[in-house]
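#help-structures

NK: newbie question. if I give both the sequence and a SMILES, will the prediction place the ligand too? trying with zinc ion
OV: yes, paste both and it writes out the complex. here, I ran yours:
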Amino acid sequence: MEMHLRFGMHRDIQLMHEEKDLYDGFVIPAHILSYQEASTSAFVTSLPDKSYVIDPMTFIFQNPRGTHFNDDDELRPSVRKLCVDYGKELVDSLEGLGTDDTLSAAQVASVPNLAKSIAKFQLDKVPAASATSAAAKYLKRYAKTEYKLPRYVLSPYYFFHDVGDEWYKLSVSSLKTVQSQKLKVPVAGVVAAHVAALTTSGIKTIVEDYSTSECVFIWIDDFNQTQVGRPAIRRLRKLIKAFDEKGVRVELLYGGYIGVMSHFDGLDAISHGILYTTHKSMYLTPGGGGAPERYYIPAFKEFRSLSQTEVIVQKQPELLCDCRVCKEIIRGKPNRFMRLAADPEMLRRHFLAVRRMELDGIEKVKLEGVLKELRTTYEKYDELVSLLPNPDAYMTEGSMQGLGYLDTWADAFDPDVE
Ligand SMILES: [Zn+2]
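OV: that's the protein plus ligand as structure tokens.
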């Protein structure tokens, strides 16, 4: 399975160069490319062996006016820049809204040639911006650079609750418009759905409409893998399977271990940031805030704060990771765990190394083996972890979260569980 890293923070650039054997490509958010075009384009160009796609980020136009304006009631510069790149009418439309109002699908649809300019942005931005003198300044740092096109053009997409709603219709018509242009690279559809939209008939309609493209990207709103229930996981599984059966390549935008397990349903790739965005809500404003410093516990298939992890590995040292990074720094000794806190870069390298092992490993095992592993971990550690003192209690209240989610995943993937 492939792993594509979501480009978010410029401080990750060096790491992405040094650990380039661990991942397959990038997802570049359009607003970052638009606002920091020289540095971002130079970065993409500096890794010619890595493929990329540009996430058009069109869902942000569904968010309330207030999320786009600063305290002086000015459109935030990064949003303004993206609007200008896509169609300056978007600026007028956003400015014309009341504070809590949102654009309607009809207003977005009325922006002239919107879908076409979004496709053009994805094809032209990197080649054009990486040829400027501003980019040359960044490019000088890199040994190898080469111009390349994205692996797919992603069609503009909008969140929908139901295949009957206007945003769904606009997403499908945008896909058709982009497909009709006969571009130099293939077009991929993006299905951005609330889980409620994934009914049996909803999935049928979505797959009919989107299997006209050779690849689809799926994003289920706020699909927090430790919180979602069995029915939600099964709906996502059905959607992935249905596309796979049609011969469509399927990728997940934002994904955690449920995404890794979706290999058994035909998923081809997942994407996420280095320590963040293994799920994402459409209502969160892009940008803002750094990545949290947290540790991915391989057996738990999830992140924990460093202080929680320390309490856990003191009690159960066998949970310490043996990837090359952890071997070198922790050396199997729980009292060395906090050395990672002094070097947060290592948290990132550890996560990438473990995720790579998970993605390679899942291709070599059977589903039954994975389910057994999840259930064994749940049975062995769930109660134990929830009884440990919670060092974050002053912030999050109460005891540490148990591992019930592992049991939920196992049931959701088990063909023998109703
Ligand atoms: Zn490790």
